[in-house]
Task: structure prediction
Amino acid sequence: MKIKVGVIFGGNSTEHEVSIISATQAMQNINTDKYDIYPIYIDKDGQWYSGKMLMDINVFKDFDSLKKYANKIQITKRAGIVYLQRINFFKNLITDIDIFFPIVHGKNVEDGTIQGFLETIGAPYVGSGVLGSALGQDKVVMKQLFEQNNLPVVPYLWYYEEEYFENKEDILVDVKKLGFPLMIKPATLGSSIGISKVKKEEELEEAVSEAFKYDNKVVIEKEIENLMEINCSVFGNYINQETSSLEQVMGIDEFLSYRDKYMGGKKGSTKGMVSTNRIIPADISEKLKKEIEDYAVESFKVLNLSGVARIDFLVDKKKKKVYINEPNTIPGSLSYYLWNDKGVKYRELIDDLLSLAIKDYRKKVSKVTSFDTNILSNQKGTKISKFNTEL
Result:
């Protein structure tokens, strides 16, 4: 009997379209001899849909016209079994689901939101849990954790929106101490959205305002001179970790932008992270390679990550100094292209991810999570009244 996999993608995120690309790529590479695939698409308004048609990326070019052919659904649980259920008068059950595979990117989905929902209903799923997902999304908290564990990060400052605008003059003094040029980033976004490079003070206010369009918290980082960007994917859990080949990213913009990552500098490309210009394996020394691999594993463990993640690094080529930039807890294209060089095909990576998730779920449900004793039965002195029972 095949394992039924519900692939969740989309969502109310600035990386909505990137998620569609990653998910359709993955669904095309899942081994259908072992798994039945059930696409679960969340539109930008939060409505959930399912149907085999959602495996075709072309559907999303005009989804508003085609969505009438998909099933509006909700996820429900009955007698310990999780189902996809139509939202109609009869609320028909479509199918049960054995395991969910979130392939979502960005705030409101990748940040532990989807994972928290699946935890609440007790459903197994692929990838990092609520804590790891949340930590991996917040650039401020992750940097603080890295610092606590003696992992290298670039010099930075961070501010909430109200704090920044109320104390702008004092903050500017501290910002100047970092020294220009600077990188201005929304704290909880990915895919380089809302990021600006600031070369002089006159450009700062516009860049910060741009970042605040997307988030209520910003990070201001010192730009690394002689920059080389290196990425490393990590597969595993808290027990075992494996590293992929390293990639040296060759962007056409001043920093690795959204266009570099997902459009390869060309308008209309839909190849996801595969379209990025890169060198695999990275053209670096064995010593630097080992240092980056070690940092990748340590950051993976510090953030409580699981499944597959991509850890991005900034390297000062002149000083040979490595800094952890950020993790991607559900990386674009699941970073499968980083495993090819090690002989791991995309289909095998997905199979390994599903197998790991099932194994971890079985271990998790073996733990005690509640007690049979009802302590409320011993409570006295509370009288039930109409007031208590009315909403």
Q: What stands out?
A: The mean pLDDT is 91. The domain at 225-359 is CATH 3.30.470.20 (D-amino Acid Aminotransferase; Chain A, domain 1).
